[in-house]
């Protein structure tokens, strides 16, 4: 019995030590990259390990008159955000740690360039034969602003387009995630959560409360439709729903409504 308890204690101690080693490795990487932002501007370092590390980089050209004012607002925010992650990291839950590591990698990959990414969603979107395409373009307009363009392509032609900016979603419980306006948080959300995705039509018949959501949108766009008429359209619909995720409450399911030739809200939390 004593041997078993010792073995369990050993495994627990080993797991904690392994997790602490992993944290130290991640924090070391964050520290190096945070200082790389300065190093790329020629800063010299008092810390011997950092100076020796950057001396090995072919791009590193140290200067005597370094001024931190040479950093762009985006670079300054990257330094500040990474520093905040470092300071909070050990107190985060495992889930929040995973999220911050992903955010850090996003910063690392995008601080020195502007994002302009196009993603394709291919599915049967409308009530007609053949596959359709929804293009999601995520691009960085300027510091602090990301735009997401959704474009529906049918037979090679653009038939619908909608644009939104600066999406926001819940990222975690820690106060670190409370800064909705953080440029990198916005970009991270846009790239990872905002591609249009197809979903199968819900099991029919749908509740009246769901029908009333779409009916309200249809009337908003100036078309008078009775509930039974919209219900008939839903029951005969052969395509997929499209999920857009760019709100605090979660994803918005949309359906292609042919009479208006546009997507309308099918369901939103």
Protein described:
It is a single chain. The chain is built from seven helices and eight strands. The chain is α+β, with helices and mostly antiparallel strands and 269 residues long. The protein folds into two domains: 109 residues, Methane Monooxygenase Hydroxylase, Chain G, domain 1 (Up-down Bundle); 152 residues, no CATH class. The strands form two sheets. It has a four-stranded antiparallel beta sheet with strand order 1-2-3-4. It is elongated. The termini are far apart.
The rough form would be described as elongated
Q: Provide the gyration radius in Å.
A: 25 Å
Structural class: alpha+beta
Number of helices: 7
Write the layout of secondary structure elements.
Elements: H1 2-39, H2 48-55, H3 73-88, H4 94-110, E1 116-123, E2 132-142, E3 145-154, E4 157-165, H5 183-193, E5 197-199, H6 208-220, H7 227-235, E6 241-247, E7 250-257, E8 262-267
Antiparallel strand pairs: 1-2, 2-3, 3-4, 5-6, 6-7, 7-8
In a nutshell, what does this entry contain?
The protein has 269 residues and is of the alpha+beta class.
Tags for this entry?
alpha+beta; Methane Monooxygenase Hydroxylase, Chain G, domain 1; 7 helices
């Amino acid at each position: 019995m004593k041997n078993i308890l010792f073995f369990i204690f050993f495994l627990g101690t080993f797991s904690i030590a392994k997790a602490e080693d992993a944290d130290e490795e991640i924090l070391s990487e964050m520290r190096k990259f945070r200082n790389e932002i300065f190093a790329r501007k020629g800063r010299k370092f008092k810390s011997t390990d950092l100076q020796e590390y950057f001396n090995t980089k072919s791009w590193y050209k140290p200067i005597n008159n370094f001024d931190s004012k040479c950093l762009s607002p985006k670079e300054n925010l990257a330094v500040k955000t990474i520093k905040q992650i470092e300071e909070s990291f050990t107190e985060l839950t495992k889930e929040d740690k995973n999220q911050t590591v992903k955010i850090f990698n996003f910063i690392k990959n995008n601080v020195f360039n502007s994002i302009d990414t196009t993603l394709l969603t291919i599915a049967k979107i409308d009530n007609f034969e053949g596959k359709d395409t929804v293009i999601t373009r995520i691009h960085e307009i300027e510091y602090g602003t990301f735009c997401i363009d959704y474009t529906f392509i049918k037979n090679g032609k653009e038939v619908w387009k909608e644009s939104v900016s600066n999406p926001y979603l819940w990222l975690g419980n820690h106060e670190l995630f409370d800064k909705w306006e953080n440029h990198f948080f916005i970009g991270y959300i846009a790239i990872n959560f905002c591609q249009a995705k197809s979903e199968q039509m819900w099991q029919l018949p749908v509740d009246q409360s769901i029908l009333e959501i779409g009916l309200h949108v249809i009337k908003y766009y100036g078309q008078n439709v009775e509930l039974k008429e919209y219900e008939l359209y839903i029951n005969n619909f052969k395509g997929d729903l499209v999920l857009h995720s760019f709100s605090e409450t979660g994803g918005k399911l949309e359906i292609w409504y042919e009479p208006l030739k546009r997507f309308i809200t099918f369901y939103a939390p």
